[in-house]
Amino acid sequence: MTFNAIIFDLDGTLLHSIVDIADACNHVLEQKNLPTHDTESYVSWIGNGAAKLVERALPDHIKSDPEKLDYFIQAYKEYYLAHLMVKSHLYEGIDEVLALLKQHKIPFAVNTNKPHSQTLPIVENYMKDFLPDLVFGQQDNIPKKPDPFAANLIAQKFNVKSSDVLFVGDSYVDIKTGKAAGMQTLGVTWGYGKLEDMEEAGCVDFINSPAELLEMVKRSTKY
């Protein structure tokens, strides 16, 4: 597997963030005396954006009311934005991967369904020594993954053929995005998605640790 650029998903791929996400959503639920959920429930709900996450966490009688649903979505976004980096951290070894990409001037980007307003401070904090060349969080004018719009735009801005881009993620959403963009795909098994879902989406290449990704980058750069 050779590549000239990489696109990374964020949550579950570069960043272990689920505890902060769960704590934020549970806080909002608790404020209205609604049932909260364990972290594993949030693991199964993540990946399709903040609005979908909150909808999945709400009781049916709340989520069926558009005004109430919107209230909880906004409340979650506000609270989480103020508590983005309490327990979150990069997965062990990711910093070495990003540093090597920077060293060899291999362009890389982040493409996530996390709202852009949340994505930027996280990237600027945890990746300040090896900032991505491009960051695309969820924005109103950009379709969410698995729509390949942002991935295609990244390839264009990098001036790299889509087939020379490696899309790395932990969920079927990421695999579908990469496939739709005509890119190579790589599934990571340390995140929040399910292996069988990624396989069903067409992924055939998987890694079990950031150390394996580091070795792939070394081979690709003849390091």
Number of strands: 8
First-to-last CA distance:
15 Å
**C-alpha-based Rg, rounded:** 17 Å
Bin the strand percentage.
5-15%
Number of helices: 11
**Outline type:** globular
Series of H and E elements: EEHHHHHEHEHEHEHEHEH
Report strand order across the widest sheet.
5-4-1-6-7-8
Please give the share of residues in helix.
Answer: 40-55%
Biggest beta sheet attributes: 6 strands, parallel
User: What low-confidence regions span 5 or more consecutive residues with pLDDT below 50?
Assistant: none
Please state the structural category. alpha/beta
Look at the structure and give the mean pLDDT: 96
Please render the helix and strand layout as text.
Blueprint (H helix, E strand, L loop, with lengths): L4 E4 L6 E2 L1 H14 L7 H7 L4 H8 L2 H4 L2 H17 L6 E2 L3 H10 L4 E8 H11 L7 E5 L10 H10 L6 E5 L2 H9 L3 E5 L6 H6 L5 E2 L2 H12 L2
Parallel strand pairs: 1-4, 1-6, 4-5, 6-7, 7-8
Antiparallel strand pairs: 2-3
Helix pairs in contact: 1-5, 3-5, 6-11
Description of the molecule:
Helix content is about 50%, strand content about 15%. The chain is of the alpha/beta class. The chain has a 6-stranded parallel beta sheet, with helices on both faces. A two-stranded antiparallel sheet has the order 2-3. Helix 1 (about 20-30) packs across helix 5, helix 3 crosses helix 5 and helix 6 runs parallel beside helix 11 (about 210-220). The two termini are about 15 Å apart. The relative contact order is 0.18. The mean pLDDT is about 95.
